[in-house]
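[Q] Does anyone have a clean structure-token version of this?
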Amino acid sequence: MTYLIDAWFERENPYLKVIHKNTGNQIISWQGETLKKRLQAGEICIEDFENSPSQELIKELFLLDCLQLEPEV
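[A] Here you go.
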């Protein structure tokens, strides 16, 4: 399976999408505050996206998508 990462972190409403290349279906879609919280928590590191996405990065994103952010106390 091949995936495409579409991400724009440097905007007011950042987004990150993982798209199945053959079908065009979005597998992961984070934007706005959800993505900002993941970035601030260190769950996602922008530098990991500077090169072509590796299988390991895609796997990590899938695992993160399965985890829910803990509610703020």
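[Q] Thanks! Anything notable?
[A] Helices lie at 32-40, 55-66.
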